Amino acid sequence: MSGMRGLLAVFAALILCPLGWSQDPSTTTSSDPEQIFKLASDAYARRDYATAESKFREYLSLKPDRPEAHYNLGVTLVVQKKTEDGIPFFRKAISLRRDYANAWLSLTDALITVNKLDDALTAANDWEKVKPKDGGPALRRSMILSRQKKWDLALLEVQDSLRKTPDSARAKYQLGQVYEGLRQDDNAIQAYRDCLGIDPKYFRAHRSLGDIFERKSQLKNAVDAYQSALALEPTDAASFLGLGNAYFNVKQYDQALTYYNAAVQASPKWATAHTFLADTFERLRKYDSAIESFQNALAIDPNRVDALSGLGRCYAAKGDKKAAQDVVTRLKVIDPKAAERLRILISGS
């Protein structure tokens, strides 16, 4: 559902970012709390998050009772992937201003991101008590239930959210996610298109359309959707991966290589991207390159079964049965059935 990347877009849109300094903010010093707050906001706007964090902390040492500063510091920590560290600042902002809707939203999203689903559910329910007409709490409950794969209940919650906020692109997107979970792809497609009707720049909706079209082997529709996502978010690794999958499925392996390589470049620590790149090299019988990519995937996730199986296949294809057998031995501990399949393949090679 809403992963870290998606949540960052929400946080980035909500933070206060006053501009207009005539001198370089990173070199400006001041003891005036309001100037420090402006310096912090300006640093955030320039994506200098380390400076923004430092300045918001400095401001809070002087003015500890301003909820916006706690909230902004929490957001700044989240965009630096310090989500756990940001959560207490959202809670503090709420304790200082109980009706602070953005802080409730950010707190709940952060708790979902770190998979503290019970805490997230409590936060959503508390938020609803304060803002009963807000669609946000029901939307977050739907996200939580989706994580738990309770799709029917997730559908009821997102429908409740849409009754309260019918023009919410985020809720329309979540509706699409739930329909995908229910394997109702036609309904999901309509929900994503409704989302884009509200907000054409909602890149995750474009990407999700691409995912559905890729599964349906509709190459042109999938490519168009993924390219639309990348036009909005040029470094989105998942869209590159989807494009690779679309071309792989129709055996256009050279095209697939291009996009899997792009996915690896965009997200070097994503084992899936390395594995799919390796699979494509294997199909092209470029076994040395495949072995290298499978090993890259296993350096990130040593127990990844498809990468181990592929590595064993490539060793067998090269005639290195000892190396292949070593992979079988390693795989037995993780997945005995996969190890047996690989053993049979090696025996027949």
Helices, strands, pairings?
Elements: H1 4-14, H2 33-45, H3 49-62, H4 67-79, H5 83-96, H6 101-113, H7 117-130, H8 136-147, H9 151-164, H10 169-181, H11 185-198, H12 203-215, H13 219-232, H14 237-249, H15 253-266, H16 271-283, H17 287-300, H18 305-317, H19 321-334, H20 336-348
Helix pairs in contact: 1-6, 2-3, 3-4, 4-5, 5-6, 6-7, 6-8, 7-8, 8-9, 8-10, 9-10, 10-11, 10-12, 11-12, 12-13, 12-14, 13-14, 14-15, 15-16, 16-17, 16-18, 17-18, 18-19, 18-20, 19-20
Which band does the percent of strand residues land in? under 5%
Radius of gyration: 24 Å
What is the CA-CA span between the terminal residues?
42 Å
Describe the sheet with the most strands. Answer: none
Question: What share of the residues lie within helices?
Answer: over 70%
Q: Number of DSSP strands? A: 0
Can you describe what's shown?
The protein is an all-alpha fold and 349 residues long. The chain has three domains: 1-132, Serine Threonine Protein Phosphatase 5, Tetratricopeptide repeat; 218-268, Serine Threonine Protein Phosphatase 5, Tetratricopeptide repeat; 272-349, Tetratricopeptide repeat domain (Serine Threonine Protein Phosphatase 5, Tetratricopeptide repeat, Alpha Horseshoe), CATH 1.25.40.10. Helix content is 76%, strand content 0%. It has helices at residues 4-14, 33-45, 49-62, 67-79, 83-96, 101-113, 117-130, 136-147, 151-164, 169-181, 185-198, 203-215, 219-232, 237-249, 253-266, 271-283, 287-300, 305-317, 321-334, 336-348. The longest helix is centred in the N-terminal third of the chain and has 14 residues, at 49-62. The radius of gyration is 24 Å and the shape is globular. Mean pLDDT is 92; it is low at 1-27.
